[in-house]
Amino acid sequence: MASVRADAEESATFLKIARAVEAYERDAERLLARWRKRLEDASLTRYARVLDAHRARVETRGTACVRTNGEFLRKALETFVDNELAPEHLRIPSDAFEAWRRDETFRASADDVDKVRYVLKNVWRDWSEEGKCERTPVYEAIFQGLEEVLGTIDPEIGNPDGEAPRVLVPGCGLGRLVYELAKRGYDAQGNEFSYYMLLFSSFMLNATREVGELGVCPWMHGRSNHRAADDMWRETRVPDEVPGDARLPPGACMSMAAGDFAAVYGDPRESGAWDAVVTCFFIDTGHNVVEYLECVANCLRPGGVWVNFGPLLYHWEEYAHEMSVELSLDEVLIAAESFGLEIRRTRTASADYTSDPRSMHRTTYACECIVAVKRAT
Amino acid sequence: MASVRADAEESATFLKIARAVEAYERDAERLLARWRKRLEDASLTRYARVLDAHRARVETRGTACVRTNGEFLRKALETFVDNELAPEHLRIPSDAFEAWRRDETFRASADDVDKVRYVLKNVWRDWSEEGKCERTPVYEAIFQGLEEVLGTIDPEIGNPDGEAPRVLVPGCGLGRLVYELAKRGYDAQGNEFSYYMLLFSSFMLNATREVGELGVCPWMHGRSNHRAADDMWRETRVPDEVPGDARLPPGACMSMAAGDFAAVYGDPRESGAWDAVVTCFFIDTGHNVVEYLECVANCLRPGGVWVNFGPLLYHWEEYAHEMSVELSLDEVLIAAESFGLEIRRTRTASADYTSDPRSMHRTTYACECIVAVKRAT
């Protein structure tokens, strides 16, 4: 009975999120309307000579960008409408979907509006050619950490005996790292809690057919710090690779598991079941980093490797009524050791996260790449 | 009559801000209490071994930091209590001050709490030895821009004829740049709208007596992205220089003017009155960047120089019901030209702003240093 209720709640949560995605175009049009109204203010009449070209750009390019993003999001959603091949927790009943489209009064919460826009930036990061500037240096550091402990895999030979190293990637977002690990011969499993990420990772991994078939305009929702007038309106084509077309090395494979990392992988059945755990911009996303470290240690077999890459931007810090444990990096390392994770090395590496490379404002993290090995005892 | 009411409103605004400063310790103690409560949660009992040292640090060092900051802020406030030498708009009546201290129920708005904490970071940036890493490269770029057009001033000789170049610095914050310009022989005037900045710039410029006499702990209010456990609790001593002790070059001087930049300097009486206008992290702070550029052009004499350093982080962008004009950099340059500011050169320079240099998260701006000359016609 409890699990039935839990399922109903889960389904309601998922449908709320899918509906916020469906509402994107109307939300973004309200944003354009706000900009338009400001620019039509009487106090600006005397600056017409300076502002006319600017206004025209907001009008024509803004409208086109909203349409491009709307098309991308709608196409993703439609993939899950009454789709019996989709995972059960990601199916959208067609009657609900049609009702949403007819209801013009609905407004997603401010938080959901932000999250939909954040999906578009993550699509840029994970699945565009331009996003390589962010993800490649990070992934290279992670692959190197894995190889230092597990050795290298020849992608031509792979693991023909079926013994591909099992790598777990909690908080895998839109799935690119999981896919890249599989391409290198690992048996990679992604884990994710957010329905936004589950929905769009499933779409990008399973439903794309052609390189560059879709467009997103991830930078159009913010008007600050643009160098050229066209920068905010530019479109990025995705995907830069079609996962369905990839020839994985023998033995390699990839899978996705939905759910909270600590709840799913803290289970005794997962104890020692993994050769590697990769936490990439992840350990600061939970309520309790210590519990996450304990869970990483639980998953790893003796001699297995933990590779971490990221800052310590604790996501729950500002939520006054939520649990949040915030350790410094040196405290994280001490906590990891206490769970039997022997720190082999750490290295600081600068990295951006969903930050427009052309912008005058960069969110740059002095990330720590940690390589640790699970002790035998 | 209208101006009397305006004065009463201004006075109320100032006292609201002074009161928020007075309330700092109680606000910060509530923050410590929140952290303490989280760390005492029953779910963390099993991690006592890992968390005990962490808890003790929050307790002892947290309490000490709040006291240090509280002392700094109180000392500044007390300087203005019934002080007849202070500017009229910055005087605090002693009866109000005493009433605030007795009222333990008062809570500053979330916005004001943030602004008080931001003052502490600005004190670090402008008036500490450690803050040099942020301000020196920026100031050097600005001095170079000024000298390219106005020539150099020998600090030993200064401007003995009394003709020191008049440099206006709108949005001068805590006044360090104004002071540094005066040290180089300019007749520098700072302009500032925020009472927070007016209060604390007046304190730092006029009321400090000894290098390092005061302490601030600017990083203690955020728990994310600390590398070492002690980083967030560290104290910085200020000032690194006592402005009152400075021997300015002959002819040099400094002054401060309170008020909105466009309202004060858009006035015909200011037309052509300045040899230079320096906008440092400023042009994006107003409601209308175009009006600011017009005002810069109005102030400058023909042949005078505008030096800009900063990003385009438009402060009013997110306020749905406020006017906000947001141009890209190339549009800013076109607008400046349209007001007779001939762009001599632009150069991109990376700079941080009140960002802990030890943190794993850096707010980095790809700033533009613009040097422009006011046309004769």
Write a brief caption for the model.
Chain A has helices at residues 2-22, 24-39, 48-79, 94-102, 110-127, 132-150, 176-183, 195-206, 261-265, 289-299, 329-338, and strands spanning 166-170, 187-192, 214-216, 236-238, 253-258, 274-280, 300-310, 341-352, 361-374.
Any key phrases for this structure?
alpha/beta; two-stranded antiparallel ribbon; homodimer; globular; 7-stranded mixed sheet
Topology:
2 copies of one chain form a homodimer.
Chain A: H1 2-22, H2 24-39, H3 48-79, H4 94-102, H5 110-127, H6 132-150, E1 166-170, H7 176-183, E2 187-192, H8 195-206, E3 214-216, E4 236-238, E5 253-258, H9 261-265, E6 274-280, H10 289-299, E7 300-310, H11 329-338, E8 341-352, E9 361-374
Parallel strand pairs in A: 1-2, 1-6, 2-5, 6-7
Antiparallel strand pairs in A: 3-4, 7-9, 8-9
Description:
2 copies of one chain form a homodimer. The longest helix of chain A has 32 residues, at 48-79. The first copy, chain A, is an alpha/beta fold. The first copy, chain A, has helices at residues 2-22, 24-39, 48-79, 94-102, 110-127, 132-150, 176-183, 195-206, 261-265, 289-299, 329-338; strands at 166-170, 187-192, 214-216, 236-238, 253-258, 274-280, 300-310, 341-352, 361-374. Chain A contains 11 helices and 9 strands. In chain A, the strands form 2 sheets. Chain A has a 7-stranded mixed beta sheet, sandwiched between helices. In chain A, strands 3-4 form a two-stranded antiparallel ribbon. The relative contact order of chain A is 0.12. Chains A and B meet through α2, α3, α10, α11 and β9 of A and α2, α3, α10, α11 and β9 of B. β9 of chain A pairs antiparallel with β9 (361-374) of chain B.
